[in-house]
Every structure is written in C-alpha cells, then in structure tokens.
Amino acid sequence: MTDRPVLMFDSGIGGLTVLREARVLMPDRRFVYVADDAGFPYGDWEEEALRVRIVELFARLLEEHRPQIAVIPCNTASTLVLSDLRAAFPDTPFVGTVPAIKPAAERTRSGLVSVLATPGTVKRAYTRDLIQSFANECHVRLVGSQNLARMAEAYIRGRPLDDEAVLAEISPCFIEQEGKRTDIVVLACTHYPFLANVFRRLAPWPVDWLDPAEAIARRALSLVPAACVAEPGHEADVAIFTSGGADFLTRRLMQGFGLTVA
Fold first, then answer.
1. Can you tell me which residues form the catalytic site (predicted)?
2. What is the model's pLDDT at position 233?
3. Closest Cα partner for 43 from 206, 191, 218?
4. 114: β partners
5. What are the residue ranges spanned by the domains of the chain?
6. 101-211 sits in which CATH class?
7. pTM assigned to the model
8. 11 assigned to a ligand binding site
C-alpha cells in the first residue's frame, strides 16, 4: 500500500471539472491539484517559453510529490508539451487532454461540429491532425476564445457574468449550412464546463456540449495501479498555486472541492 497521490495540473481552476469526475471513480486515492495561476492564461504565451516553463515545473512537482500518475486536464498544455513530458520523465505515466473531436464526429447527425477552445489549442497542429484523422467527413469549425477561460475563473469564484460578452464568444460556434445546423460543440478547455449552463441558456438553438472530463478520469483510473490506494487516515487532498497564494474566494472554492490550499 502507498499514499502516493494522483497529481492534477492545470493552468488555473479548470481542471477541477476533471478532479470532480476522478474523485467519483477513485474515491480512495489522494489528490494533489496544481494550478499554475502564475502562468495563467496559457493562451498569452509564446509556445517555446510555455513548453520550457511546464517541463521545469514538472521536474519540481514530480520530485516533491512522487505521484502514481500525472493528469493534465488542460488542452493547451497537453497539445503543446505532453510528448516532451513523457520523454523527460519516462517513469511517470501521463494522461493528457485533447479536444474530443473523435467522439464528436461519431455522434453528430448534421455533420456540423464546432470546437470551442483557447487560441493556443485552435492553432496547434495537433488539433488539426485530430480533425484530419477522425472528422474528415465533417465540417469542423475551430473557434478560439480569448476571454472565456478568464470568464470561467471569475464565474466559479462567484463573480457576475455579462451575458452579451459570453454570447459574443460562443456565437461563432453556431452555423447553418444547406438546411443543417451545428449540433455538437466540443468544450476543448476544461474551464468551459463551468459555464455549460450559461452556454445552454444563451445558445441560439440546442446543441450537445461535449465535456471530456469523465473520459479523462476513466483513462486515469485505467493507469493507476490497483494496489496503490491511500491508506486509512491518509493526508488531505491539497491544492497548490504556483503564485504562492490564493485569495479568499479561491480558498473558499477549493474548500468546496475538498481541497486544502497548501
């Protein structure tokens, strides 16, 4: 038996949507949630600088926490640096997050799919390769939002949203073509499911908002050794912020997710 944790790493608090699902599937595991709030938002970074930052962060995190597995519920980080992390730290299993384009292509009836993501994920060759490999017969619109991740961070902390501002970000996802309409929008940023109910309320017509959180959690479960569960009375799950601190609203949010801010 061991108390080695499951490490979750995100640019901010978006990965909590995956943590929520992982806890359901792995209630006997201990979790360390790392929010790189000092680097947030990742969409503003140059790719090479962000790659170096994340690899250097993981060198310290893996040394300090010795996790059973590292989960990266962040599309931007995963599509950019997952292969580098696997090469640099071959003894640690990594689970990344990529846009759910394959299941969207399998489910769509109209053939019109939109991928709502950060600008970094939209421009990544990895994303376009997924479309080429799994959605070649669909019309896939890539929508890069500069602001939704920030909006989600504010919203989940209890701050009000401007409906018009949200609608401006999601409107490009909705297209009509030859009598058909977009019927699936892939939420390709783990921050966005926090806004899913707002999206549903503001959408010009109903669509399936595809949230990959459960699939990511199931993949993580499949890679965690069955014997490596936390012993009774194990340490509390913790949240770590790379800025070194968290404000009152953030601490209250973490407590709501059962996390103690380290």
1. 74 (proton donor/acceptor), 189 (proton donor/acceptor)
2. 54
3. 191
4. 141, 185
5. 6-97+214-261, 101-211
6. alpha beta
7. 0.87
8. yes
